[in-house]
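Team,

Forwarding the record for the chain on the shared tracking sheet. I've put the sequence and predicted structure together so nobody has to dig through attachments.
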Amino acid sequence: MRQDFEALGRTIMQKVLVALEDTDGETTDTPLPTHLVVRESTRPA
């Protein structure tokens, strides 16, 4: 699996900044896309 770590870091920092300003304790999930990377070492299905 490949993840966009730049987007992940950006999203996390946005959530941290919002949490610092809004202390009601409610959080939401933010799914980020992942990509399957098929390599030669991957066993065929």
